[in-house]
Amino acid sequence: MYLSISHQDITNGLKIIKDFVSQHNGSDLSEIEQAIIRGSLSKLTYQAMQQTESALQYYDVGYISRNLAFDLWNKLNTTITKSFLIQDDFKVSKKKLWHLINKLVDKVEGESLEFFDLPDDLEEKILLDRYEIEEHLFDRHSGERHFRAVDLHLGNKPCLLIQRRHQTAKIREQFQREAQVLSELGKHLQIPQLLAYFEDSQYLNLIYEYIPGKALTELLATQPWQETEAKLLLQNLLSVLEFIQSNNVVHRNLNPDTIIQSGSKWVVIDFATVKNLKYADHAISQSSIAQGIKGYMPAEQLIGMASFTSDIYAVGMIIIHALTGIHPRKLKINRQTGSVIWRNHVEVNNHFADILDRAICYHFGDRYQSATEILNDLAVV
Known about the structure:
Number of strands: 11
Largest sheet: 6 strands, antiparallel
Shape: globular
Helix content: 40-55%
Distance between the termini: 66 Å
Strand order of the largest sheet: 1-2-3-4-6-5
């Protein structure tokens, strides 16, 4: 039987964790970290946290769960190691926050709060005797499930598990074909590697390497970028896009949350919603529900007609966001042409601005048709 958790319980629990981190790690918890802790103590999903916590509302739920929460759990585990208060190899996670509070109170005050975790039939399950599932991250509208896992054969190295239910032999055949394409994509240095793909009695499973780093979303939150910086980012993204397009694939979810600065390189993540144009009529990732985030997603993608030019539009809007410091949803639209009005917010080289305008044309036939075309034009800016 689980105890009801009151607002005061959550407030007290958060304070215990804040004091613990401040005392043993010499740092404070950010608003984002506190929001994730409050949500976790309330037994909320990451989707629910995004909807109820103002500090999280502008982040994609995938980034909240994969990156922001992951960094928080690492921070808490580092603090636990430094404190020497807990000696039993305890590892904190979303599920185990109340256990952490219970252990801390027990050490300090000698009494127990007796809070329990909610059960999850998948967490702590081991797949292929190798991949241990640590935490449920989020579900997509299509029913696809995302989990954080560790590779037991590689010293508990973090990885991502994506599960889809298989329904027919034809879908399983399509999954095998698409997984082979994803394996090819993972050979690029700026794309996560697909480590494994396999079927079990219920699911089609994809295991990806985990990419640490900071999302472009956070880097855009400070101030507008200089033209030189924005142009360099564009060239980096186009080089990845050129490789993706050479494999007849559309990403369909390019936005600042799916672009990670990892060390000295930019990495494009979240290939779970890719569309293989070679098998467009039957691809397992194809869905009647539009993929992507509003502001970075062109009109044709809203009705399920994504193409190479759809990713080009997304990249163009990302660069405009960087240059102006304004989220695309807040930019005005020319009612006659459908084009985004942005040039009045920033001064840039006219040729560079013309390239961006062509990349984000409302009608996909008016845009650049490939990343190579844009790279060629950029070479003469």
